[in-house]
Target: D-xylose reductase
Amino acid sequence: MAPTVPSVKLNNGKEMPLVGFGLWKVNNDTCADQVYNAIKTGYRLFDGACDYGNEVESGQGVKRAIDEGLVKREDLFIVSKLWNSFHDKERVKPILKKQLADWGLEYFDLYIIHFPISLKYIDPSVRYPPGFFDENDKLSPGKASLEDTYHAMEECYEEGLMKSFGISNYVGALLLDVERYAKHLPQTLQIEHHPYLVQQDLVDLAKSRGIAVTAYSSFGPSSFLELKMQKAHDTPLLLEHETIKSIADKHSKTPAQVLLRWSTQRDIAVIPKSNNPERLAQNLDVCSFDLSKEDIETISGMDKDLRFNSPPNYGIDVPIYA
Ligand SMILES: NC(=O)c1ccc[n+]([C@@H]2O[C@H](COP(=O)([O-])OP(=O)(O)OC[C@H]3O[C@@H](n4cnc5c(N)ncnc54)[C@H](OP(=O)(O)O)[C@@H]3O)[C@@H](O)[C@H]2O)c1
Model:
């Protein structure tokens, strides 16, 4: 039987599952099957994005599960994200509608501003997903302010194209600025969050405003090994760290489950990605045991303010966290 996954109540009354499946780096040829199998395993939240380049296949997996009667659309919580090249206010709704069509959906449960960076528009017929560079493989800034993009998101929200909307990779100053111009505060903030990058002040700030936090890259360096990022190779793996392993042994759980529980127990949602069926099942079962207060403090005490998912770490000269 699939483990029970609690929900977090968002500031607009909607409920978001605390555990979901992340779709970044899920290959196109296996994606539909992985989504379908994840639904079979009990996952209900899927965290996608234009940039992941697999929205069509993700939608195929969802459709198969719905067609076979495994779930209904309303049982699922589908997340997608607005890419940097579509921040101009007149570009937001058309690209959102294209993404919905790719998934085969009428609405997203959550649609997120992926990064607080505006890049030059690239027509989807030229290159999709666009990535960070323009048609001439140059990094070209866009003209949209974050406020303009935000208001365009609010319009789509009011129209019902997404049931909730969020921001991602925002720092405290940007979040405080949102408060100045928002008609509706965002429902969620998605950030890199693991024991090497705790960002407690940012988590506290979001929570104090009623904004739910979602952690990405919960295993720290592991995700970035796949990308051959030097910084990840130079960092001791959290999944093999003695501190995490000993806490895991104490609870008869795996290190991955401890890392995920460290977040969920603090009401921070997680969206791990796994290509492996056994790990897929394991990652969903991260709310059925409790860490002690000391375990949580010990894990939080591993903080090194060490960030992996920053554009300069990929050789992209956009130092948003400078
Ligand atoms: N908003 C943003 O800017 C942003 C940025 C990054 C990520 N995200 C979202 O967050 C999701 C998760 O983050 P992520 O993809 O960076 O990485 P992650 O889920 O932290 O880590 C994935 C890596 O951990 C391995 N893994 C997964 N479960 C495991 C387990 N139980 N035991 C051991 N190893 C395990 C995976 O390998 P296997 O596949 O082989 O199991 C993979 O190498 C993404 O898919 C995406 O949806 C958002």
In short: Residues 22-25, 47, 114, 168-169, 190, 216-219, 222-223, 226, 239, 254, 256, 271-276, 279, 282-283, 309 surround NAP (CB under 6 Å). The chain has twelve helices and ten strands.
